[in-house]
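Example record

The entry below shows one chain as it appears in the dataset: sequence first, then structure tokens.
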Amino acid sequence: MTHVLRLCIAVLLAACTASMARAEDGAWTALRDRAAVLIIRHAQTEPGIGDPPGYRLDQCATQRNLSEAGRAQAAAIGRQMADRGVKVSRVESSRWCRCIDTARLAFPGAEVHAVDALNSFFGERNAEPSQTNALRTRIGEWRGPGVLVLVTHQVNITALTGRSVAPGEGLVLQPEAAGLRVAGAVQF
């Protein structure tokens, strides 16, 4: 690789990194300064996809749950939001234990409200349109004050926004007349 090519690659990487940092700063500003919605994918789990056959929502031991790293990640979510001056007004979660645990570890003083529209439809794809519409309506109704935190699953976030997020990553959403806008991503 020539020196000029290496220099060009370095400049492009620096520009991309700076652009991503500005976008994340904008997302944090939106969370601090207005009534916004933060939708978070549950924190890291034990390895696997979906849940074991025969899982039950009322029995966490039958589900794929947070790993030790996921529990630490969930706690870090709340600390980082507090450190950045974000006022959380309400926390809603899927009924899956990995989501409820993420919400409780991130926001230990908050009441966590289980909401069916946030439940995974990974194994029931026919539920996607009605759940996504209900979620879109819920987000559109939020007026604050403060931030509404929604803890859910990858399939729900992708159906709603068209974006993929890592475990424990969140998207800042703002209602608009034509639906909703992704103001940016935040990583914990």
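Notes for this example: The chain has one domain: 21-46+59-186. The longest strand covers residues 179-186.
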